[in-house]
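in:
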């Protein structure tokens, strides 16, 4: 039925659609809903404490026995850089004054901790069938412990070099994250956003460069994108933004509305929300301070500095300081429950693939018929 079964066989799923892990926006309900449609639901743990992640995993395991993905960030902890911190405070100072906040209070703690022993214990306890990472891979000992659970291991690559590195480190499959993708760039061997590659160019080059299956991600939101991904050499797709329109996405009404209204040219890559490049719908902070700022502290410290501004402005119903993560294809949205969306995407893709096969075989028949007539007339 599907042009490539490698990911289906590897993960034990029925449709080659992975709901992208989306930290802060998609939790157990989304994961279960996608699993029920035969896709792979992903629980992003980057913004969860160990206890919160445990609760989500317990809820998932209670509701489904189908395969799931647990996802973690694995960035290097930031260096202490007082000078940069002061510059960032100064850059944001006027906003603190505007909102009546004290800009000299210490930054609150960020909860974007990299994958560590405690999260690894959780993986050993819950045995997610797939474990995926963003920003490279954790250190070898942690990776060995994850592998020992029998989980298949994934990470995102944004270039051929990153894909080869991940394959050499033992990844079972690689997410090709094109420049169109919403949320953080998974880039880890470069910091140069200007050379990041679009999905259309990235997927076939990764498929040629490595032996493990490729999962296309970035700007894919309907059957046209999924068929294209297969044509480019992907074995599955990972879809984020399209799932944010589902009722299971736990996002604020302002964020939901912004996604609904987003045009094709309204997102940009920005580092002002967290310190790392990520794609979001443009808002006041991005326009006035970014989209890219040289003084934004290292990931994830920029987020900590913004937290009071974000909280206060959100209370007033504003998204001025809120990261509205989104890929470039937000306007291809449809508002459906996640099970329904996954089933529709799969059915529409299969229909398109059948149509293409029928057309291709009709073309072959007509070419054969022409050839036969031509060779007969030559013989005469
Ligand atoms: C709101 C949001 C949050 C995201 N959070 C994560 C995350 O926690 N871990 C991760 O590996 N990828 C994350 N991503 C990136 C996705 O894995 C994926 O690359 C991207 O959604 C694909 O592009 P699309 O949004 O155009 O479908 C996030 C994306 C979005 C939109």
């Amino acid at each position: 039925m599907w042009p490539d079964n490698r990911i289906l066989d590897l993960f034990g799923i029925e449709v080659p659609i992975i709901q992208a892990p989306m930290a802060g926006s998609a939790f157990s309900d989304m994961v279960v809903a996608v699993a029920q449609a035969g896709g792979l639901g992903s629980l992003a743990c980057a913004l969860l404490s160990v206890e919160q992640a445990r609760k989500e995993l317990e809820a998932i395991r209670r509701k489904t026995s189908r395969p799931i993905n647990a996802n973690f960030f694995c960035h290097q902890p930031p260096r202490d850089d007082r000078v940069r911190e002061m510059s960032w405070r100064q850059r944001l100072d006027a906003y603190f004054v505007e909102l009546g906040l004290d800009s000299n209070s210490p930054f609150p703690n960020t909860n974007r901790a990299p994958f560590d022993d405690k999260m690894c214990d959780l993986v050993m306890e819950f045995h997610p069938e797939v474990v995926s990472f963003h920003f490279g891979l954790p250190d070898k000992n942690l990776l060995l412990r994850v592998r020992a659970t029998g989980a298949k291991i994934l990470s995102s690559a944004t270039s051929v070099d990153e894909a080869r590195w991940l394959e050499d480190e033992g990844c079972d499959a690689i997410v090709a994250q094109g420049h169109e993708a919403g949320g953080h760039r998974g880039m880890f061997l470069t910091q140069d956003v200007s050379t990041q590659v679009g999905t259309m160019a990235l997927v076939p080059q990764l498929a040629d460069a490595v032996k493990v299956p490729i999962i296309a991600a970035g700007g894919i939101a309907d059957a046209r994108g999924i068929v294209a991904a297969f044509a480019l050499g992907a074995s599955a797709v990972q879809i984020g933004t399209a799932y944010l329109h589902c009722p299971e996405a736990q996002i604020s009404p302002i964020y939901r509305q912004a996604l609904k209204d987003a045009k094709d040219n309204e997102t940009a890559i920005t580092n002002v929300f967290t310190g790392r490049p990520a794609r979001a719908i443009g808002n006041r902070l991005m326009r006035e301070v970014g989209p890219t700022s040289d003084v934004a502290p290292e990931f994830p410290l920029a987020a900590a500095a913004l937290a009071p501004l974000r909280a206060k402005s959100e209370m007033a119903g504003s998204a001025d300081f809120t990261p509205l993560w989104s890929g470039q294809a937000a306007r291809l949205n449809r508002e459906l429950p996640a099970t329904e969306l996954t089933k529709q995407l799969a059915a529409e893709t299969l229909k398109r693939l059948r149509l293409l096969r029928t057309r291709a075989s009709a073309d072959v028949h007509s070419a054969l018929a022409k050839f036969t007539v031509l060779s007969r007339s030559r013989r005469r």
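note: Residues 6-75+112-250+336-379 form a domain with the TIM Barrel fold (CATH 3.20.20.70).
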